[in-house]
Amino acid sequence: VVTKIKFKLDVNTGAQDAASTLKVNEIGSVEIATNSLMALLPYEKSRLLGNFVLVDRQTMHTVAAGMFDHSLRRSSNIHHQDYEIDMKKRAAAKNQEAKVIWLTGLSGSGKSTIANAVEKQLFIDGKHAYVLDGDNLRLGLNKDLGFTPGDRAENVRRVAEIAKLMSDAGLIVIVALVSPFEADREAAKAIFTSTPFYQVFVDTPVEICQQRDPKGLYAKANKGEIPNFTGLGQDYEMPKNPDLILDGTAELSANLAAVLKLI
Known about the structure:
Strands 7-8-6-9-10 form a 5-stranded parallel β-sheet, with helices on both faces. A 3-stranded antiparallel β-sheet has the order 2-1-3, with no helix packed on it. A two-stranded antiparallel sheet has the order 4-5. The chain is elongated and about 75 Å long. By secondary structure, the protein is of the alpha/beta class. The protein folds into 2 domains: 2-67, Beta Barrel (Elongation Factor Tu (Ef-tu), domain 3); 87-262, 3-Layer(aba) Sandwich (Rossmann fold), CATH 3.40.50.300. The N and C termini lie far apart (52 Å). The chain has helices spanning 87-93, 111-124, 134-138, 149-168, 182-190, 206-212, 217-222, 252-262, and strands at residues 2-9, 16-17, 27-32, 51-55, 62-67, 99-104, 129-133, 172-176, 197-203, 244-247. A hairpin with a 6-residue loop joins strand 4 and strand 5.
């Protein structure tokens, strides 16, 4: 469906004239929306994937032919809506400061255990906190994602956006996510411009993680049942500048105390 006519091209002068319609044999620039995904490339890169025709569904006649230039950004016409009750007011009502604690490390490193301990202590202290666990999110919101680098990047992006919304609600958000790539972690951190964000690296040797293997994932990965498994089939990039490094083999009480001191 043609959603917008940007201009009509004067073939004699090259002028771009305003237009609300295009007649037969006229040339113009338009925006088109499709009801399903299409494989397209700019015409200058691929004549095969860069051209298209528009067909009238009733007559089945070709009504236009065109060349693909570029895709449109989905959110180009979306603007942020501000509300009178902001993050600081929501957090003040809970007698706390909203913040995000991002635990990263190998599967089996102890992220979820530490996250659970932190949330439990904050709850005892009368604080409002919530854990965003990577595995739990893959059971619902992120169940459509696999473990390729691209899917992992999207996984991190979605979790970061959820954490941002929850921190905006005035909560203390604890993220427990492998998040193996530095670029993805930095992209996640970058969206928290007005919220304290703490990156915590749970440093546990892969050999220890395999011995623990609480969910049996390393056993499956060693059998080839889980491709791209971080630590075996896919590398984990060590954080360059984490706010805190925890020894995943240390006592839980020591790691809990370190996180609480940090925040």
